[in-house]
Design brief:
The structure is a single chain. This protein is an alpha/beta fold. Helices cover about 35% and strands about 20% of the residues. It has an 8-stranded parallel β-barrel with strand order 1-2-3-4-9-10-11-13, surrounded by 8 helices. The chain has a two-stranded antiparallel sheet with strand order 5-6. Strand 7 (about 165-170) and strand 8 (about 170-175) form a beta hairpin. The longest helix is centred in the middle third of the chain and has 20 residues, at about 120-140.
Length: about 350
Amino acid sequence: MPYPLHIGAALDGVEDPFDLASYAGAARLAEEAALDFVALDDSLTGADRPDALLTLAAVAPLTGRIGLVPTVTTTHTEPFHVAKAVASLDHASLGRAGWRVEVSRTEADARAVGRRGTAPDAALWAEAEAVADVASRLWDSWQDDAEIRDTATGRFVDRERLHYVDFEGPGWSVRGPSITPRPPQGHPLVVVRADGEPSLRAAATTADVVLVAPATLGGARASRARVREAVAEAGRDPERVSVLADVNVSLDPDRPGPSRALSGLTHTGSPGALAETLLEWGRVVDGFTVRPSSAAADLPVFAERVLPLLRASGAFRGEYAEDTLRARFGLPRPANRYAPA
């Protein structure tokens, strides 16, 4: 039984997607409820909301414990800039950053950037896997003691503790080192949504947390087993990778449920029934990403009426015990691959 559960909340249902206070308020509510993280989706050229990573970077100093997981598209973004931006979020949050690796499949994104056309999913996810790899190498390109900050001599960094990564990716290369010191977590948490074979392969080699969207309990059990098998085949320990299921929720009896077709489990009804469902599903997955139909309406009800029932069953924590997002998922701070043993 995977109890206790990991639970995060998506902030895509905020009332005003261009109002920072809406995101900050929802994130603070999730933090008061001791959720593992808040997540924010993004698309490369989406006009419906601001950049997810920049938004959560602005939320970082307005919160203190909650994890922050923006979606970052790797297809048309330089890997060096991806690594720098995610590292900056980890610094701004003092070790609470994660990032959901995503690819761009659309012609609109390709035309907007103008650098190259679209590509098959397999090629996009192979590149995303390479970006995640080089990002971790760039984070390691600064040893933890590389910063000197010696004002007397004017030396900020010990160059002997900076390292070239010399990485060759599909159509690009990165020499390094990074221009940003190593993140507080060493490597911010890597999240991948496994919605097909190419993304599952990338998740198996890179992800700390894998998101799935099964619609039934049997599907949830099969999804977790499939992820764990793929992780083992990639030579990694499945016990070190958490599998979280999407749950779309609408808990306001005066408002109709989600009108658009959503993947994953969708619950429209009472908080008690949702708690029972999560307890049942929590026996076959490691946790959930709760996606409120309305952050302002559904997230408070989830915090005040669903979580107490989960805590009473011993399925969820009452308060934070760890300071970093990696530690919250039971993951150690990784050793620096370039530092002397």
